[in-house]
Every structure is written in C-alpha cells, then in structure tokens.
Amino acid sequence: QAVVDFERLGEHAAAFQGHDVGFCCLGTTRAKAGADGFVRVDRDYVAQAAELARAGGCKHFVLQSSRGANAQSRFLYLRVKGEVENLVQAVGFDHCTILRPAVLLCKRQESRPMEWICQQFLGVVARVFPTAYSVPVETVARAMVACVLQPGKGKVEVLENGAIHELGKA
User: Fold this and answer.
1) Which position among 32, 45, 59, 77 bears the catalytic label?
2) pLDDT band at 138 (very low <50, low <70, confident <90, very high)
3) Phi-psi region for residue 69, left (φ > 0), alpha (ψ -120 to 50) or beta?
4) Using one digit for the tens of pLDDT, what is the confidence trace for 96-112?
5) Residue 32 catalytic?
6) Strand pairing class (95-100; 156-160)
7) Given this model, what pLDDT does residue 153 score?
8) Which residues pair with 157 in a beta bridge?
9) DSSP per residue, 116-139
10) Backbone angles phi, psi at 36, to 5 degrees
C-alpha cells in the first residue's frame, strides 16, 4: 500500500508504476466536501489517478461509478459521475470496466442518518427485489475482481446493478 496526497498526486507517480490492473472506488459526498470538493475528489482525483495508472503500465482499469451516471444530468452527483466515466475512458486503457451500482448497502463508521434510514428500507425491499435498488458493497467488490478474471468483450464494458449482482455471485 502507498499513502498518497491527492492534492499532489503527480508527485506520487511511482505508486502507480508496474500494475496491470487498477481499481478505483474513490469518492466523497457533497455534504462532507462541499460542491467544489466533491467535484475535485470524484472527478479530478479519479481522472488524474487513471492517467497515472495508464502511464505506469496499467492495462485494465475498473471504476466504481453510480447508477444513473450521465455527463448531461442536471444533478451534480450524476453529472460528475458521468463526466469521470468519460474522462477515464478517454485515457486509453486496453480495457475499462465501469460499474454502476445502485444504493450501496454497507456499515459506515461515520453517521449519515438519512442514508441509514434509506439502507434500512432498501434492505427490506432487497428481500423481495434483490437486484432492483441496492447492492451490498461486498457484492460490488466481488464483481470488480470477477470482471478482471473474466474480462468482457470490447474495450469498454459498463455493468449496471443487475449485472453487478450476477457477476458478484461468483
């Protein structure tokens, strides 16, 4: 593991050297970082990390994005996720996999009351419609590994929530 300063990411290029695969789950919230901080973390840092990984020899980049990502969205969150997807694809990896999970079901150390309420509700809904509105983070992690072990066809592969569930079962 290498600890890097994302404000000076270029100074840490050595940490990105010699890896065949890159996994990126970096993100924050607007509430935590403000609108500008959210854009900096979720778009700028991710795009710069992808560029450094490619320059370091990375062939397959796996990006966790979000359901509904769209660079043309009126909503900041979905627009930034769509923009970063486009930026990562433009880097020119041999293979790029983008995962678009729905609401992530996980336990957090920090307090997010509204997210907790949503997760409780979606946890119940998931018993009836397991792939519709949410996905456990463990399933996303397994899908990320599986997509590298069994790469799909084409240069860019986008996996929506249902496909993440399927691939995450393996």
Assistant:
1) 77
2) very high
3) beta
4) 999 999 988 777 666 56
5) no
6) parallel
7) 79
8) 97
9) HHHHHHHHHHHHHSTTTSEEEHHH
10) -65, -40
Pairing of strands 95-100, 134-136: unpaired
Identify the DSSP state of 10. Answer: G
d(CA 147, CA 151): 5
Is 77 an annotated catalytic residue?
Answer: yes
- Spell out the alpha helix ranges (H) of 11-55: 30-39, 46-55
Number of H helices, E strands in the chain: 6, 6
Please name the amino acid found at residue 56: G
The tokens of 62 are what? Answer: 């796996």
**Residue 29 burial (C-beta neighbours within 10 Å; 0-12, 13-18, 19+):** middle
Exactly one of 59, 81, 133, 153 is catalytic; which is it? 81
Count CB atoms within 10 A of the CB of residue 130: 14
**Runs of H (alpha helix) within the chain:** 30-39, 46-55, 76-90, 113-128, 137-149, 161-168
Residue among 59, 57, 33 nearest 45 (CA):
33
Summarize pLDDT for 13-29 with one digit per residue, the tens.
999 999 999 999 999 98
Q: Are the beta carbons of 26 and 52 closer than 8 angstroms?
A: no
Give the mean pLDDT of 38-56. 98
